[in-house]
Amino acid sequence: MNGHAQRLEALTVRVQVPGAAIGAALTRRNEVTLEFGPGEYQRLTDADLEHHLATVARLLHTAWLRAYRQTLDPSIVDTPGVDNDTDRAFYDARAEVVGRGASPDGRIRLTAHGPQRVTAGIARGTVAELSEEQFVEAFRAAGVALILDYTAQVDELKDRIYR
Fold first, then answer.
1. pLDDT digits (tens, 9 = 90+) for 62-77
2. 30 - beta bridge partners?
3. Which of 49, 65, 129, 143 suits 77 as a labelling partner, its CA being 20 to 30 A distant?
4. Domain of residue 52, residue span
Protein backbone atom coordinates (compact mmCIF):
# COMPACT_ATOMS: atom_id res chain seq x y z
CA MET A 1 0.00 0.00 0.00
CA ASN A 2 1.44 3.38 -0.97
CA GLY A 3 1.65 6.41 1.33
CA HIS A 4 -1.56 7.98 0.07
CA ALA A 5 -3.52 4.75 0.46
CA GLN A 6 -2.16 4.39 4.00
CA ARG A 7 -3.26 7.94 4.83
CA LEU A 8 -6.74 7.16 3.49
CA GLU A 9 -6.96 4.00 5.57
CA ALA A 10 -6.06 6.04 8.66
CA LEU A 11 -8.72 8.70 8.03
CA THR A 12 -11.48 9.17 10.57
CA VAL A 13 -14.01 11.97 10.34
CA ARG A 14 -16.63 12.79 12.96
CA VAL A 15 -19.77 14.87 12.58
CA GLN A 16 -22.55 16.15 14.81
CA VAL A 17 -26.10 16.80 13.60
CA PRO A 18 -26.99 20.44 14.30
CA GLY A 19 -29.76 20.73 16.87
CA ALA A 20 -29.74 17.04 17.77
CA ALA A 21 -27.70 14.82 20.04
CA ILE A 22 -26.65 12.61 17.16
CA GLY A 23 -23.06 12.04 16.10
CA ALA A 24 -21.45 9.82 13.52
CA ALA A 25 -18.02 8.80 12.30
CA LEU A 26 -16.57 7.41 9.09
CA THR A 27 -13.34 5.47 9.42
CA ARG A 28 -11.17 3.74 6.82
CA ARG A 29 -13.41 4.87 3.95
CA ASN A 30 -16.35 2.60 4.74
CA GLU A 31 -16.72 1.94 8.46
CA VAL A 32 -19.70 3.90 9.75
CA THR A 33 -20.72 4.48 13.36
CA LEU A 34 -23.71 6.34 14.78
CA GLU A 35 -24.24 7.57 18.34
CA PHE A 36 -27.17 9.10 20.14
CA GLY A 37 -26.97 11.27 23.22
CA PRO A 38 -28.76 10.04 26.36
CA GLY A 39 -32.48 9.64 25.66
CA GLU A 40 -32.23 11.08 22.13
CA TYR A 41 -33.21 7.93 20.24
CA GLN A 42 -36.31 7.39 22.37
CA ARG A 43 -37.64 10.92 21.76
CA LEU A 44 -37.33 10.80 17.96
CA THR A 45 -39.92 9.66 15.46
CA ASP A 46 -39.25 7.64 12.33
CA ALA A 47 -39.69 10.82 10.26
CA ASP A 48 -37.23 12.72 12.50
CA LEU A 49 -34.68 9.97 12.00
CA GLU A 50 -35.12 9.95 8.23
CA HIS A 51 -34.23 13.63 8.18
CA HIS A 52 -31.33 13.25 10.63
CA LEU A 53 -29.84 10.22 8.85
CA ALA A 54 -29.81 12.06 5.52
CA THR A 55 -28.08 14.95 7.31
CA VAL A 56 -25.53 12.57 8.85
CA ALA A 57 -24.73 11.10 5.43
CA ARG A 58 -24.26 14.54 3.83
CA LEU A 59 -22.11 15.77 6.73
CA LEU A 60 -19.94 12.63 6.64
CA HIS A 61 -19.45 12.98 2.90
CA THR A 62 -18.44 16.63 3.19
CA ALA A 63 -16.10 15.96 6.12
CA TRP A 64 -14.52 13.02 4.30
CA LEU A 65 -13.89 15.09 1.17
CA ARG A 66 -12.20 17.79 3.23
CA ALA A 67 -10.05 15.24 5.04
CA TYR A 68 -9.28 13.47 1.74
CA ARG A 69 -7.93 16.70 0.25
CA GLN A 70 -5.61 17.00 3.25
CA THR A 71 -4.13 13.57 2.45
CA LEU A 72 -3.07 14.69 -1.01
CA ASP A 73 0.38 15.89 -1.82
CA PRO A 74 0.37 19.72 -1.58
CA SER A 75 1.59 20.00 -5.18
CA ILE A 76 -1.61 18.26 -6.35
CA VAL A 77 -3.85 20.57 -4.35
CA ASP A 78 -1.93 23.75 -5.20
CA THR A 79 -1.68 23.10 -8.93
CA PRO A 80 -4.92 23.70 -10.81
CA GLY A 81 -6.07 20.59 -12.63
CA VAL A 82 -6.18 20.32 -16.36
CA ASP A 83 -9.64 19.06 -17.14
CA ASN A 84 -10.15 17.75 -20.62
CA ASP A 85 -13.26 16.46 -22.36
CA THR A 86 -12.74 13.01 -20.87
CA ASP A 87 -12.54 14.42 -17.35
CA ARG A 88 -15.66 16.50 -17.88
CA ALA A 89 -17.51 13.46 -19.22
CA PHE A 90 -16.49 11.54 -16.10
CA TYR A 91 -17.63 14.35 -13.75
CA ASP A 92 -20.98 14.61 -15.54
CA ALA A 93 -21.54 10.85 -15.47
CA ARG A 94 -20.46 10.61 -11.82
CA ALA A 95 -23.06 13.22 -10.88
CA GLU A 96 -25.71 10.83 -12.25
CA VAL A 97 -24.60 7.78 -10.25
CA VAL A 98 -27.24 6.57 -7.80
CA GLY A 99 -25.88 4.51 -4.93
CA ARG A 100 -28.12 2.50 -2.64
CA GLY A 101 -27.71 0.76 0.66
CA ALA A 102 -30.12 -0.91 3.05
CA SER A 103 -30.03 -2.64 6.38
CA PRO A 104 -30.31 -6.44 6.16
CA ASP A 105 -33.98 -6.30 7.20
CA GLY A 106 -34.69 -3.44 4.77
CA ARG A 107 -35.97 -1.12 7.51
CA ILE A 108 -33.34 1.54 6.80
CA ARG A 109 -32.63 2.59 3.21
CA LEU A 110 -30.09 5.16 2.06
CA THR A 111 -29.86 6.54 -1.46
CA ALA A 112 -27.20 8.87 -2.84
CA HIS A 113 -28.04 10.68 -6.07
CA GLY A 114 -24.55 11.73 -7.04
CA PRO A 115 -22.30 12.48 -4.11
CA GLN A 116 -24.30 15.41 -2.75
CA ARG A 117 -27.98 14.50 -2.48
CA VAL A 118 -28.64 11.76 0.04
CA THR A 119 -32.05 10.57 1.16
CA ALA A 120 -32.98 8.17 3.92
CA GLY A 121 -36.03 6.00 4.31
CA ILE A 122 -37.10 4.30 7.52
CA ALA A 123 -39.91 1.79 7.68
CA ARG A 124 -42.78 2.99 9.84
CA GLY A 125 -42.62 1.62 13.37
CA THR A 126 -38.85 1.16 13.32
CA VAL A 127 -38.13 3.33 16.37
CA ALA A 128 -40.83 1.54 18.35
CA GLU A 129 -39.65 -1.92 17.31
CA LEU A 130 -35.83 -1.62 17.34
CA SER A 131 -33.70 -0.86 20.35
CA GLU A 132 -31.17 1.92 19.99
CA GLU A 133 -28.39 -0.65 19.60
CA GLN A 134 -30.31 -2.52 16.88
CA PHE A 135 -31.00 0.73 15.05
CA VAL A 136 -27.35 1.80 15.20
CA GLU A 137 -26.26 -1.55 13.76
CA ALA A 138 -28.91 -1.38 11.02
CA PHE A 139 -27.75 2.13 10.07
CA ARG A 140 -24.12 0.98 10.04
CA ALA A 141 -25.00 -1.85 7.65
CA ALA A 142 -27.02 0.47 5.38
CA GLY A 143 -24.21 3.04 5.36
CA VAL A 144 -21.55 0.49 4.46
CA ALA A 145 -23.77 -0.96 1.73
CA LEU A 146 -24.35 2.53 0.30
CA ILE A 147 -20.65 3.37 0.27
CA LEU A 148 -19.70 0.06 -1.34
CA ASP A 149 -22.43 0.35 -3.99
CA TYR A 150 -21.60 3.96 -4.84
CA THR A 151 -17.83 3.42 -5.00
CA ALA A 152 -18.23 0.26 -7.10
CA GLN A 153 -20.30 2.21 -9.62
CA VAL A 154 -17.79 5.08 -9.70
CA ASP A 155 -14.90 2.62 -10.12
CA GLU A 156 -16.71 0.98 -13.04
CA LEU A 157 -17.34 4.41 -14.52
CA LYS A 158 -13.63 5.28 -14.25
CA ASP A 159 -12.73 2.03 -15.99
CA ARG A 160 -15.24 2.67 -18.77
CA ILE A 161 -14.26 6.30 -19.38
CA TYR A 162 -10.52 6.27 -18.80
CA ARG A 163 -9.52 2.88 -20.23
1. 898 888 888 776 666 5
2. none
3. 143
4. 3-162
The CATH number covering residue 42 comes to 3.30.1310.10
What total number of domains does the chain contain? 1
| Contact (CB, 8 A) for 34 and 136 | yes
0.70 exceeded by the pTM?
yes
Exposed (0-12), middle (13-18) or buried (19+): which is 35, by Cβ within 10 Å? middle
Contact (CB, 8 A) for 50 and 120: yes
Q: How far is CA 143 from CA 9, 58, 66, 73, in A?
A: 17, 12, 19, 29
d(CA 128, CA 116): 30
